Amino acid sequence: MPTIMYANPEVARVGLSVKEARIQGYQLKIIDYKRPIEESVELIRIISRASDELILGVEMVGEQACEWCGQMTLAVEGGLHVEMLTMNLLMKNFFQTDMNNSKIK
User: Fold this and answer.
1) In the 8-state DSSP scheme, what is residue 97?
2) For 58-84, what is each residue's pLDDT tens digit?
3) For residue 97, is pLDDT > 60?
4) Rounded to an integer, what is the distance from CA 70 to the centroid of its chain?
């Protein structure tokens, strides 16, 4: 179930958090995408299973986090993998970073 906080900046989350995924025993690959917007930064954190990059959860902060929440819910509930998400869900407009920012934890 998605969680949205209408604040400034907006905060939204869907699926498992990093802590919840670790408690369930997953080895994680966490990818942080950041984009500077005027005086703030938008962030989308994709939490995936390290073995196959199945998306377990997504955390978002920024002025459009609530709009992104619907698409990210579909990604989590639909069983998408990171590559499918970054290639197909309008990511080229948001993400201007490379996959080297990811960390396996």
Assistant:
1) S
2) 999 988 888 888 889 989 999 999 988
3) no
4) 12
Q: Which two tokens stand for residue 29?
A: 């690959």
Amino acid identity, position 6: Y
> Are the CB atoms for 58 and 13 separated by under 8 Å?
yes
Any bridge partners for residue 33, and if so which? 44
Residues written for the chain: 105
Cα–Cα–Cα angle for 41, 105, 95, rounded to 5 degrees: 30
Identify any residues that bridge with 58 across adjacent strands, giving them in sequence order: 14, 46
Question: Rounded to whole angstroms, what are the CA distances from 43 to 7, 26, 59, 72, 76?
Answer: 15, 23, 8, 13, 17
CA–CA distance, 53 with 82 (Å, rounded to integer):
6
